[in-house]
Specification:
This protein is an alpha+beta fold and 161 residues long. The protein has a single domain (2-156), classed as 2-Layer Sandwich (Alpha-Beta Plaits). The chain has helices at residues 15-27, 67-80, 122-131, 142-146; strands spanning 2-10, 32-37, 41-43, 54-63, 95-101, 106-107, 112-113, 136-137, 140-141, 154-156. Strands 1, 2, 3, 4, 5 and 10 form a six-stranded antiparallel β-sheet that branches. It has a two-stranded antiparallel ribbon with strand order 6-7. A hairpin with a 4-residue loop joins strand 6 (106-107) and strand 7 (112-113). It is globular, with a radius of gyration of 15 Å. Bound molecules: adenosine-5'-triphosphate and 2-amino-6-hydroxymethyl-7,8-dihydro-3H-pteridin-4-one (PH2).
């Protein structure tokens, strides 16, 4: 089995329900099991700031799906949960990114691994630390990358959906 880390985000509709729906779909992926789920975080929008706050979490999975197969399954979940791509980095019902897949490094047309913007995003680094604090991204520990960012934009979600 391979180990992969997924980043999940939503800022449209019933955000908590969207996260739970995405997790239930991932549980149905063949030859895949979720090994850990991070806390849920309320996060200020990154990249395109004129939109609602997000809920974000990360999950670790063990899977026999190949990276491209895993990506296809994630895109299918996004379609199933009615994701529409109107503005880059804009509002979405759900977004599932493959952050890390074993120690694979690739830069293909459809898939880049590790995800190229992990180290720029506190909304990814903080939930990832819930899963594996000693992960190394581009030669630095998660918390070292976090030192460069504004972690104020990420707060543990207390639930008011
Ligand atoms: N590691 C990855 N995880 C998910 N999608 C990826 C990855 N690498 C490349 N892609 C490609 O990116 C395409 C666009 O993804 P999407 O529109 O969800 O971007 P985004 O998640 O909004 O922005 P960002 O990529 O900055 O997180 C996907 O259709 C997929 O083919
Ligand atoms: N807070 C937050 N901001 C984002 C997010 C996200 O999941 N959370 N996803 C984006 C595109 O992947 C762009 N900006």
């Amino acid at each position: 089995m391979s180990r992969a880390y997924l980043g999940i985000g939503t800022n449209m509709g019933d955000r908590l329900n969207n996260l739970n729906d995405a997790i239930e779909h991932i549980k149905q992926f063949e030859n895949t099991e979720i090994t850990k789920i991070s806390k849920v975080y309320e996060t200020r929008p990154w990249g395109y700031t004129n939109q609602n706050d997000f809920l974000n979490l990360c999950v670790s999975i063990d899977t026999n799906l190949k990276p491209e197969e895993l990506l296809q399954k994630c895109l299918e979940v996004e379609l199933n949960l009615k994701r529409e791509r109107i503005i880059r980095w804009g509002p979405r019902t759900i977004d599932i990114d493959i952050l890390i897949y074993d120690d694979i490094i690739c830069n293909g047309e459809k898939l880049t691994l590790p995800h190229p913007r992990i180290q720029e995003r506190a909304f990814v680094l903080i939930p990832l630390m819930d899963l594996k604090e000693d992960l190394i991204i581009k030669g630095m520990l998660l918390k070292e990358w976090l030192n460069e960012l504004d972690a104020e934009e990420v707060k543990e979600y207390i639930g008011d959906e």
